[in-house]
Amino acid sequence: MFLFNKKKSIILSLMLSLGLVVIEKADASTFRVTPIKVSFSSKVSSQVLTVSNDSTETLRFQLHTYIWKQNPKGEMQLDTTEDIVAFPGLFSLKPGQKRLVRVGTLIPVSSIEKTYRIFIEELPPEAKANQQTNAIRVLTKVGIPIFIQPSSQVVEGGVENIVFSKNQINFQVKNRGNVHFIAQKIRVKALGEADKSIFDRQQNGWYILAGSSQTYDMKISQQECSKTRTLVIEVKTDNKVFTEKREMPKDACSAGN
Q: How far is CA 70 from CA 74, 93, 208, in A?
């Protein structure tokens, strides 16, 4: 079975971006935010988000904005910022009601894309007099990515730092461009004698921000390692495929076995 060590990090990051769940009551309330991405440019400095209450109760919300960076594992690194403003920052919605949220910035574009996140966080309901409950409530926190795009955009990437050791393959997917891309599929193919397929495995990726690298690990069996002569790593984005081909070192399968 093919497992990337990064898998758990991706799942946790996606949970954070699509709905961080905090246990607090029995039934989860329901709300939607559209669109699911905000892009600013030299010509567009504000956009509107629509928050819709699809539940049967009144919901309360607060907004927070952050600078969004990534560590080598692809995990979010968030810092508070005043670059992005959102109004209103605190509001409530009755059942079936919608609210427009204005999101904007006065930060000028630069040669490299700037990345942020706005979080729409559900608050606990206001306590009512003589109200007693032992139920559990699920509060939802939705994160929307915000991009301030450069005037001239370059989407470019590649696979770097491929290392073979003890039947394990390590490599990095590097964003060499000036805007983000999503690594939709990361495919690792091993070829043996006469280019015979030894294995062909795929993993879903995630956002890779401009200038960032994400590290992947893959374990292979002794048998697969000994038969492999060439390794091909492909990273598929929405409009490009980055490919790196590497010959397997002769001693790659000997250490630690």
A: 5, 33, 8
